[in-house]
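Lecture 7 notes: from sequence to structure.

We start with a single chain of 298 residues. Read the sequence below before looking at the structure.
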Amino acid sequence: MKKLIAFALLIAVVASFAARASPSAVIDGFERAAAFNPEIATSVTAIRRRPVVVLVPGILGSKLTSPTVGDIWGSGIPDLAKIKLPPQLVDETAPSDVQATLLENYFGDQYGDAFAAIKDAAKKIGIDAVACGYDWRRDLRSGAADLEACLYRTFGTTRRTLIFVSHSMGGVVTAVWNAKHDARQYSRQHLVGGIVLLGSPLQGSCEVLRMIHEGYKQPVENSLNAGKRAEYVYEKWDNLRGGLVNSLTGWATDGVRDALLTWPGAFGLTPKATNTDEAGRACVPLYQPEQPGGPGLI
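Now the structure, written as tokens:
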């Protein structure tokens, strides 16, 4: 029964958002229904917690600063010595003074435009949007603890309905956080209204291995349509601009390749031997000595 009620609530909320109805209108409707069916009173209480969108960025998507070290990532030319994870922070439970915030711009836009669009869309339906960074160098469990600390700094003990929009590594961090939340170890006062995963490598990513070879690069959209001249010219220019930005970013983050090997968080994203990239190529080629034809890919 509770699952059916929760599903009905979700449908109602999504429908109301699509129609740009206010969350309070949805709550009022369910309160009227609760007067005739006490079984949904608990769900009505839960949905009264004001919804908020929480953006969780991917690897390298949080600006890292420290009172003792200064700027670690996200300002100026990357310093290899600073972005390497100190040995004492390999333990995910070790205390750290590193502060992580959303990286909006760094050698071009990172999450600035996306977060602005999220805030604008959320504002139109009367809800808030916040961003939570984390130290992506550390273990995924440490990232989940950073996320929990961000939520507490932002909302304190106020009850909210959290709708996560999590990109890349941020989705894995959110999944680890959500497991703790389900176990009532994190944010017991909050309700998780939904988790949107954007390219999150829940089973590992070939991109981590590519970063070791080429440094950090953003994906460049390739949807050129020669049939529409104006769009073709614009997208051609946009792709060239994106390629230039990637060349600069790859050069500027060349040191990331060595530093990455000190990040437990990166190891948490490594792929299985059977994973393939977008072109269908195995990103972890392994030798199969028992195969008659010689080396093969597992």
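Residues 1-23, 293-298 have pLDDT under 50 and may be disordered. Keep this in mind for problem set 3.
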